[in-house]
Amino acid sequence: MAITNQIGGIQIFAEIYQGATTYVYKGYQSSLERFVLLKVLRPEFSEDQWLSQRFEEEAKLVGRIQHPNVVAIYDYGREDDVSFIAAEFVEGLTLHDLVERSQLPVELACFIVVEAAKGLQAAHNQAVLHQDIKPSNILISNTGQVKLTDFGMASVQAASQDQGVQEVRGTLAYMSPEQILGDDLGTYSDIFSLGATFYEMLMGSPAFLGQEERDYLNAILNTNPVELLRRRRDLPAHVTRICQTMVAKDPSQRYQTCGALIEDLQSFQSGWQFSADSAQLVVYLQKPESYAPLTSPAPPEEDRVRSPKKLNPAARIGLAVILMAGLAFTGWFYITNRSEELTNKDSDLANEADSQSTTQFQNLEPPHEINGKLEPQVSSSEKNMSAESNEPQDDLSGPDVTRPQAQTTHETATDTSGYLQITCIPWAGVFINGDSLGTTPLKQPIRLPVGAHKLLLKNPQFPVFTDSVAIEENETTKFELSLWGTVGRLNLEVSPWAEVYIDDEYRDTVPPQDRPLVLTPGTHALALKHPALGTWQTSVEVSAGETVRLRFNLRNLLAK
User: Fold this and answer.
1) pTM for the whole thing?
2) Which of 57, 455, 503, 554 is the most exposed, having the fewest neighbouring CB atoms within 10 Å of its CB?
3) pLDDT average, residue stretch 147-174
4) Nearest-CA neighbor of 181 among 217, 219, 133?
């Protein structure tokens, strides 16, 4: 490491972490007799104007946030061509380290979420989105303080917006659906990530799991992990509801501000008398095995089911008289109406017998479709009988389902239908013959008329997929697709760094490259732009399901 042992009056004490563009040290500031966290831009990037600007933006953004639940920024500067940030050093551990031991007691998890939300609210008040809330970015001090750290993603986002470029950043397992889809972000996006962290504290395992990137995407967009919280018998239902609101797929269904989340949690803690503080957290940090969790709380008085008050003898006699009178009237009413009903029915049966030979076909109704199936013609009486039967009714799954119209005629008025079962990774909107059937995973197979149907699957991250599926009578046709198999992926290693353009469209800046670039199969124009070194242009060819890895040294390439 080509750096001195002292930067900005801070003595380097120990290395903590090496990142793609920075070194992180524990340092000692002798002038104030305190340890500090020293973040240093790596020497090879010291002359890189763009990265230096991003580094400075991070310091300025976090420097605006003054709150006890956010790691404070002490200083920013440049010395001997080395850029550095001096920040508060927190003696303790990360929430990730704490959760790795085991799931947390409910009251401690609620306390940590409230404290983290306070710090997040302070950032949001300064129009700063963190964009990378996760257990490893929440620090727990030895004195029980909870502090947010690492606003690097927030600075990247702010800088990219200034340049008119939308960058999607974050840690995949904790990203909100709108981060994945590239939609507009807001305070609710950080709340989703905090909700995933809350779940992990309560269950001891991440909310969204996967072996590959596509597994995480599918889980975040399509699964609801909160159902598993019911396995904790000591978990009040109100806590489950709070977590569910935090990780709702639709941003409009989440808490819109951290203030609303804090108010709900504190109201629960106050009403249920089920709260913890930093002192209890310290006890747990020191000896988790000896910590005595609070027992599952009783609901507040207004939420309890009250036992009925006992009536005095006179009131009980009066109530009995009223009930007996009511029963007597009900019996008289039923007998009277039943007698009239039987009389009318006998008359109807006699009339039907007299005209049966001439009206047998006149009561038939025209054919109609139910759930995409042409119903056989039945008389009104037959229709009423079928409505009273216990046969299961067909149902199409998926939100806002538009049922496909069957292309059949009166001559095929028979039960000639089958089923289509669709599995798509990571997820897709399903269209049959142009009609929307919702988003995968669908709750059950789709019922369709026999024959060929046009299938269309849409996911904004992938090219539209179309195919034809054949439905056979009384058979279930299974259609399975991985959208990742329809595209190619590109991994880049660029030294020192470059802005990446694919077919004249900006796609990323590497390093770092958080995830591969998704490309349609075929040949694409690739341009790597560096403001000082120049631009290197070439082409890259990818095939469906293939991952291409390329390495470029711009200094060597552009020096030729």
Assistant:
1) 0.55
2) 503
3) 60
4) 217
